[in-house]
Specification:
Distance between the termini: 54 Å
Number of strands: 11
Radius of gyration: 20 Å
Strand content: 15-25%
Largest sheet: 5 strands, antiparallel
Strand order of the largest sheet: 5-2-4-3-7
């Protein structure tokens, strides 16, 4: 574990957004760490940014009242499944330019999640309002109008895939769908 904010800050992105951003950056990326869940971490210059309003993306930096640590694998670990260097650290590959990274992450956010909805949305699971709503499902109704189900970044991976939210309840829904 290495404390962030001394040699570098880090930007953490969820797997899907991170993969798209990494592809967009291409050779312009610096070193990138991937953890065992697929989350990607870019190293950036200390103090080059403090906060970005992107869904699921976090800037890890030194804070006045607490320390933040990042698990940094040995340089020789370049494959998973444990934490490893997705883009190996090297003399010509260290820090990523923060604004190029922000542009790539912004583009990836839009491609993965669509436009940011107006205002706060409720998470389907915790039922708390979130400033980072991620659409997890869209139900198209008979009138052609869709109802979007949102989740906060924490609960997005927990949304049951392949299951549509029901507008009808239990027995009525089963009968409506032709199941018994």
């Amino acid at each position: 574990m290495v404390e962030v904010g001394h040699h570098w800050d880090a930007v953490r992105a969820p797997k899907t957004v991170g993969e798209r951003a990494l592809e967009t950056l291409g050779d312009e990326t610096g070193a990138v760490i991937q953890d065992n869940s697929g989350t990607l971490y870019w190293l950036i210059a200390v103090g080059s940014t403090t906060s970005w309003h992107l869904r699921g993306v976090r800037v890890l930096t030194e804070l006045a009242d607490e320390r933040t640590y990042l698990g940094v694998p040995p340089v020789s670990w370049t494959t998973g499944p444990k934490a490893h260097w997705r883009v190996p650290l090297g003399p010509d590959r260290y820090l990523t330019h923060p604004w190029r990274l922000r542009e790539a992450l912004t583009e990836a956010d839009r491609a993965e999640y669509g436009l940011m909805p107006e205002g706060r949305q409720l998470c389907y699971r915790c039922q708390l309002p979130t400033d980072e709503p991620i659409p997890v499902d869209v139900e198209i109704r008979g009138n052609g109008v869709g109802k979007t189900t949102y989740a906060c970044p924490t609960h997005t991976p927990l949304y049951p895939t392949g299951q549509q939210p029901r507008a009808l309840t239990s027995a009525a829904a089963t009968e409506h769908e032709g199941r018994r």
